Amino acid sequence: MWYPYLALLPTESEMAELHPLMWPQGLSEEWLSGSPMLLKLQQRFLNCREDYEALVAAGGNFLFPPEKSIDAIVTEISTRWAASILLSRAFSLDLTNELDDDEFSEHSTVLVPWADMLNHSSLCGKESCLVYDSIKKLACLHASKDYLEGEQVFDSYGPNLSPSDLLLDYGFVDQENNNHRVDLPASCLGPVTGSANDDLLRSIGLPPDGAIFSITEDGVDETALAWTRAAVASIKELASVGWTEGKHSQEKINTRGNMSMACFLKPVSHENESEVMRRLLSACGNVLTQYQTTLDEDHAMVDNEVDKVKVSWAQAQAKLAIISEKKALRGAWKQFYVKLKKLENGGNFRRSSQIKRTN
Ligand SMILES: C[S@@+](CC[C@H](N)C(=O)[O-])C[C@H]1O[C@@H](n2cnc3c(N)ncnc32)[C@H](O)[C@@H]1O
């Protein structure tokens, strides 16, 4: 029954151009050099190697009797092919029945053969994401506009995907996508002030060595700001939000941590806020200097020819994602710079308590 569908899936050699997990590792290092995307991709390569070793250890290559003389089907490359097929085709659907009151909404990763034949367009909004109708027991899709007969129909793989997300999961970037965003490990912000700050961030499950924050052209969201304020706060500032090192019992530590973090959603002091802006500014600046190519070189690669050498389609996609990351970092850098200058000139700083008093 599934043969016609399976026969249409891209083969291993076709996927080599289509998905970063199928690029030779040397090429991914060259094409994504300096980009935080490279670390994510390298982690995926490692996960695939572990999956491959586990599949072989589980006897994956003894599925066919030896007399059939079929080559080993589980290889490192076939495991990466399977992972790239899943990454680029799976949907995240809420399969719970909304009539069952006691069931929580929970998204499952599922394959929906044929629905996954549609290409993505960032011009399609949330309405064109596939959803599961638990009453009709059907996966449903809505068109984002009227289509003419014979016109290609697109869906949306997710309204908030950035060009880097699209590249890493699906291997392409559509030029209509303006969700410029780069995800950085919190370690880019430099060390936390001391062990009390470290404990606070660990208590809420966002440790300095594990948290990730997103940078867009507008800067960072309020959670990332709160995290950075907490990371650079002095002992006195931590005490002012109710966090004293070693004072909180194991059972209450998470509740206390969340309450203290909520106070960092607003600036706590002029000094703290200035340090936050300095850290964010230098994180953006440092990442920008890591890229191996200039924006002009990136654009030349997207335009498909450098020194009369044709650039591959996959390399052009990598450059589109890198251009998008640079847009996010440059935009954010400007925002942090303006805020820091304002703070240095003594303006525009209000503690939350001062705001209340003025009101
Ligand atoms: C779920 S499949 C979509 C259908 C695809 N044409 C196929 O059947 O193989 C996702 C893959 O389609 C390709 N794709 C989807 N939308 C695209 C777009 N707007 N531009 C270029 N390639 C796209 C990418 O290779 C992506 O990994």
TrEMBL record:
Source organism, top-level taxon: Eukaryota
Keywords noted in UniProt: Methyltransferase, S-adenosyl-L-methionine, Transferase
Domain (SET) ranges: 39-158
InterPro entries xrefs: Rubisco_LSMT_subst-bd, Rubisco_LSMT_subst-bd_sf, SET_dom, SET_dom_sf, SETD3_SETD6_MTase
GO process annotations (BP): methylation
Name of this protein: SET domain-containing protein
GO molecular function: protein-lysine N-methyltransferase activity
Membrane-spanning intervals of the chain: none
